[in-house]
Description:
This protein is an all-alpha fold. The chain has one domain (15-53). The chain has two helices and no strands. The protein has helices spanning 3-34, 37-53. The longest helix has 32 residues, at 3-34.
Amino acid sequence: xxxxxxxxxxxxxxxxxxxxxxxxxxxxxxxxxxxxxxxxxxxxxxxxxxxxxx
Length: 54
């Protein structure tokens, strides 16, 4: 394999890694915007009430 080919492969891997990180970042931002501390608190309270009845 020539040096040019290995540079192309390295570049492609770098681009894939960038895209993967961007996707993960977007997913994290969406999750954080939906799953707020207030919602977390409400869900915990609901779960406690449901389990207390059992």
